[in-house]
Design brief:
The chain is of the alpha/beta class and 256 residues long. It is built from nine helices and twelve strands.
């Protein structure tokens, strides 16, 4: 590459301190409008998706073109290991600009709403499935896991760079309901309807917290409650597995 790559030899370097904070603090990410990613595969995904790459720390050679305004630093593997919030880190850490969450219309299409889902791995897996099944958007309540947590980004396998994602609060959802948008909840309750008996077009489908399910506030806004038929003796599915099934059914409905 025809660029001057700076070398960092100490983890106390201000750039390293900045990277460390991006990996560990949601408020720091929001303050600086940046989030942390790792690995060559995710770097390629980010570039191909048009993400703005702010800076890169690498212990290996990058043999492809990067944007001119991207800062590149060479560091040791031990420094990368010390900066990554995950146990197993790759040979590259890089930061991306957090995209703007523009106003978005939910009147047409199929949308998945994640209500207080706390596990970043579940959120990332759901975003990955949503992208695979052509779901129009993934919506998160503002008390859900951070989509820019490195665990979320890893679990999404780069889908977080491509999928339409929005963050809203309960008041926003109430206003959507008042505008006439149909909201469908998911739960294993006696009054629920089997998923195959309900249209999943032009709706918002709510998936609830891993332990508590959908909050009372949102449950009261749901027009219908659907369930996935399970084998006798099986009470529930992991929320990411349930989401994948629901989105697959929705995608099959679209191509009829």
């Amino acid at each position: 590459m025809d660029r001057k790559i700076k070398k960092i030899t100490s983890r106390s370097n201000p750039v390293c301190i900045h990277i460390k904070k991006l990996g560990t603090s949601r408020s720091y990410r929001e303050e600086h409008g940046l989030f942390l990613c790792d690995g060559m595969k995710l770097l390629n995904e980010a570039l191909s998706s048009g993400m703005r790459i702010d800076c890169i720390l690498s212990s290996t050679i990058i043999d492809f073109e990067l944007p001119d305004d991207t800062c590149v630093y060479h560091v040791s593997e031990s420094i990368i290991d010390s900066l990554s919030p995950l146990k197993s880190s790759g040979d590259i850490l890089f930061t991306c600009k957090i995209p703007d969450h523009n106003d978005y219309s939910y009147n047409i299409g199929t949308h998945i709403l994640l209500d207080t889902i706390q596990d970043p791995g579940n959120v990332g897996s759901i975003i990955r499935s949503a992208n695979a099944f052509g779901i129009d958007s993934v919506i998160l309540t503002d008390n859900s896991a951070d989509i820019f947590n490195l665990k979320t980004i890893r679990a999404s396998m780069g889908a977080v760079f491509k999928q339409q994602i929005n963050i809203i609060n309960y008041n926003d959802i109430y206003n959507l309901k008042q505008s006439g948008i149909k909201i469908i909840g998911t739960a294993s309750k006696d009054f629920s309807v089997e998923i195959c008996k309900v249209s999943l077009e032009n709706v918002i489908i709510v998936l609830g917290n891993e332990g508590q399910g959908i909050s009372k506030e949102l449950l009261e806004l749901c027009d219908e409650i659907i369930t996935i038929p399970l084998a006798p003796g099986c009470e529930s599915l992991n929320v990411a597995a349930a989401a994948s099934i629901i989105m697959w059914v929705a995608s099959k409905e679209r191509v009829k």
